Amino acid sequence: xxxFIDSHAHLTxxxxxxxxxxxxxxxxxxxxxxxxxxxxxEDSLARALPLAKKHPWVxxxxxxxxxxxxxxxEIEFPIMAKHAHEGHLVAIGETGLDYFYHHSSPEKQQxxxxxxxxxxxxxxxxxxIHCREAFADFFEILDKEYVVNGKHAPGVLxxxxxxxxxxxxxxxxxxxxxxxxxxxxxxxxxxxxxxKIIPLELLLIETDSPYLAPQSHxxxxxxxxxxxxxxxxxxxxxxxxxxxxxxxxxxxAKKLFNLKTAx
Length: 263
Fold this sequence. Notes:
Largest sheet: 8 strands, parallel
Distance between the termini: 9 Å
Radius of gyration: 17 Å
Helix content: 40-55%
Mean pLDDT: 96
Shape: globular
Number of strands: 10
CATH architecture: Alpha-Beta Barrel
Structural class: alpha/beta
Low-confidence stretches: none
């Protein structure tokens, strides 16, 4: 049976949560068997905990987003750490560095990236990384802070939009790369070229709902049911069947996030 796992969606953000039951119903109708729900603040995590209990195929990851660590990082870190240690999360994230926007200083972002990497190691959880125009600093921190027995601990670069050279650096470290609906945009030729070189065993797919709806839904709020459109484009680029892409990316998500109940 053809099924997909959405490796990154913000189900409990205020933009999508009001209609969450309908969103999840449409996701299942579109053959989505698992969703990694990304919580980026205390409120979205509070909504996520009962949601995952009600829907065992929804899994939670959490930390304060790099944009917001300047204002909320110190307040929210103990909350995120508590739930990580108590086994309520399948990953730490999305953490990382974003130098395109200036919502939080680079210095503060780097401090919290290091803290969240340490938390991930303590809890034996993978990390989900947001990185924009900051790859040099990110790789330097990753190589220093997130290596165990000479090998990088597990993680994924979500919604990858970097260069081919940056993708190759991620691949060299044995990390996953996750592609979003941006891959379907008409002007995303370079990203489709990157999709072609990503080894199938290191590829994930995501919606980043409610953001970045794929080409046929542009202008709408994104949701997990739109994931097959992105998957189809990537499969065509890689010259493999949609079934092969779905099977591989689902296997990769289960392996990275240690999912037990996803089909």
